Predict the structure.
Amino acid sequence: MDNQAFEMHGESIQSSSKGNEWPKKEERRGSWSLMKVFLVCLLACVITTAIGVLVLSLVYVNNTAFMKETDVTDNGASSPKPDEKSVDSKFQFLNHLGKSKVYSYPGGEIQWARYRKDVNEYLSDEEMEFGKSINNHRSKMTFGTLRIKSKGLRAPHWHFNANEHGYLLQGTAWIGVIGADDSVVTTYNVTAGQVIFFPRNTVHWIKNVGSEDCVFLLFFTTHEELQTLDVDDAFFSTPEDIAARALKPKGGVNFIRTFKKQAEDQAINLPPNLDQLVQNATYVQSPDNLVWRYFYNLKGSAEYHFPGGIFQWARYRRNGTGLNETEKIFSESLHKHENTLTLATLRIVSNGLGQPHFHFNANEMGYVMSGCGQAGVILSSGVTTNFNIGIGDVIFFPVGTQHYLKSICDEDLLLILAYSTGNELETLRMNGYFHGTADHILAQLFSKEQSEFKKFPKAAKN
């Protein structure tokens, strides 16, 4: 028959009738082959299962260790390891600058209160806590002290990512600022108590022209690492033929090759043979209309008195209110550039108080120039801390953070303060918001009779 299905069925009937016969050699060989395949598959399954169990065990152990290390709580916060050093929360707002690393150069030195990406560059956990704080709060602020020896030079340089504001604490200096397209070069002299300002990417230099060290207190408008390039580094990084074509010196590229890069960083420069190198130095003063774009006579400005102390301001004022003609030039220069700062000196007399207050539109950073005091901070997260401050300390108050300053020794407490706004500073003091709240609201809030709140005197306008 031609029906294959039928033929197969017939063969199966015949084979079944011979079921009691021992399988032929070829059939036994096929059976063993199937058994081998089965055993190999079974072994593979066992090995795969064992590996899977081992991997899951390792993952579980690692996750358990991680959970123990971080001690995760319900609110998502992580606690340090039990053996990890706990850092006092005050160091979010306080930096003992005198304990930080001193960066030394031939002509002076620099110290920093700043954020660093590489945590190994911090000298202590407390310094790291401050650096992390100004970065986490996006403060747009970095602080440094610059000391320049007599005749020393802070090399011409520019900052890629920050404006620079400075206050001269001690000494006499000659400043140079080069405008865009080298169209205008402004030079001027500064003395203690005056303010300097360098917009971002503006080439500038500082030369000590006095007999004593110059000490500048500097604020930079970045909470990231400051990016700076010195003119000598730019020169030596430029190919010789390119530099020759750009500068066109007599002797061409051969003259360029006579310049030799110093082994030591020349950020603050003071060659030992300076008198042989320079025979005729002049310190020209540019016209006021140029100078005051980068300069402010803070010590000679108006004083703003409040119960317990005095403010003096280097700031923008809308319509130039209360400013003379040269001060208006500085005010407009601040307002014209992005991310500038407001600077002020604050003097609090012995036992005087800068009452609790907060700022709507600015972070605040300050440096203690003299005296001693106490600071207090309250954060929205509930963190409350009070701490003593002294000469050389840097303080930081994030925007919206209520804080106060109090003088606690016989000497006046004197600080230089910077606020991260180029607009008018917006502030609310405790007496202002207390009296601005309806007394029946306060009575309900504090569970106190409404008439009791008449005992608070009305806030005086500063």
Observations:
- DSSP finds eleven helices and 25 strands in the chain.
- The CA atoms of residues 143 and 219 lie 5 Å apart.
